[in-house]
Amino acid sequence: MTASANYSCYLGAQGWDHKHWLDNFYPPDLPEEWRLAFYNNVFNCVFLPYSVWSRVDRQKLAAWREDTGEYFKWVLQAPSLKSQDQERFECLHSSIGLVMDDKGEILRGKGECVWLQGQVDLKSLSNRLQTNASYTHPLYLISMDADLAQLEKVKTLLNLLGLA
User: pTM of the prediction?
Assistant: First the structure.
């Protein structure tokens, strides 16, 4: 979702494997190991808390990276940048958009994260998106509750604004 060479807008959720998505989002016959690739066909970023990605071995992280496209971005939470995390970062390499601490402060990367939860005020979001369109750093729109209906509304808004 790119509006210009200088501005990017990314849309995604916290994680991609939600039970309430099994009947509403993923095809019933889709193997579990293909869900991330399917998710990447609809969304172009994902947020993972430290408790999720820090427990995954490097091989699995590399496989996740292979399952996503070259423009897909990972938004990772990290309480701090630890040396053992550096090896995991290397598995995701240039596809890491942001690394943030527990308070949302950016530790690595450039951009801004907008947390979507519950009913999204589309008018306010539209104003913010149009204002940010002149910025040079990416904007990450992340649904914390993984509400597919709200994500679809935001995606439609991005299309209408020419940001998708």
Answer: 0.91
